[in-house]
Amino acid sequence: MKSKQDTIFSSKTLSYFLQLAETMSYTQAAQILGITQPALTQQIKKLERTVGAPLFYSIGKKLHLSDAGYTMLEATHKIYETLNKATDEIQQTTSATQGEISIGILASIESSVFASFITDYYEQNTGIKLTLHSLTRKEIWERLESDTIDLAVTYLPDESIKNWKPYESKRIVTEDLLFIHGNENLSKRKRIRLKDTLTHNWVTYPPQYYLNDIIREAYKNALLDKPTSVAHFATPAQLFAFAKKTQTYTALPTSFVAAHNNGQMATALFEPEIKFDLAFVFRKGKNQIPRIANFLKTFDTYLAKKDYIMRLKEIKAD
């Protein structure tokens, strides 16, 4: 039977504390955690009652960690480090072809190549149980933090992550963001200036999605207003279908275009180019676990055989 302290020091409560300690804002932390601000405040107050001291204090509108808060933060990091180290040490003694691998893929990524690879991988490694999760950016980092996924497939660089110390990344490919349109007047252009893409409505990823942030930042750096979006969708397939049907503009990664466009919509590179990395992200040392190391090595071989990288380069040259 769980005691009251077991509940207070649950993984969820500690993750709430860590998020507040990172953002130093109840409003921002609650938004990232997907809970209400009163619910977060209640959990922090319960934690403070349990330890017997305030963990935070305010000066004006600015939040600070108290001495007790710093002690709690250090202890919480040590708890996670100890548990993750123990898990990794146990797993490093296991077989490369036995066990479970849990993978989180950012929902806005074209996942067909990963789904295809996982099918092939299972056929050669039937002792491995593979689980694929489609996740938001917030969910990916939460699950990496709690060590409930082994690998994440996401876009980098990700400015929303301030503490990279516990993580490593392995680049899969550098992608270009392509301008997608059905405008005949622009169809012969291989490159297009940002200002020339503002003549028509867009369909985009939802606010706070990585690629939406990338697009917004590119236009901001060019001293331009961001595109006017008439609809938001979470997946590239949904964006593509809407743009094709309504003749709105959009922007999609080369990986999606390579897999699905087949000349249905005109494409062009942005000028200046908008680039980002598609990468595996994992906790430090996770790639030393035999089954994870074997998975990553086999994936590299798979991409080479499928000429995946070459196909992305061809899309740029078309």
UniProtKB/TrEMBL annotation:
InterPro entries: HTH-type_LysR_regulators, LysR_HTH_N, LysR_subst-bd, WH-like_DNA-bd_sf, WH_DNA-bd_sf. Residues 9-66 form the HTH lysR-type domain. The keyword Transcription applies. Pfam families: HTH_1, LysR_substrate. Keywords: DNA-binding, Transcription, Transcription regulation. GO terms for molecular function: DNA binding. PROSITE patterns: HTH_LYSR. Belongs to the LysR transcriptional regulatory family. This is DNA-binding transcriptional regulator, LysR family. It comes from Ligilactobacillus ruminis.
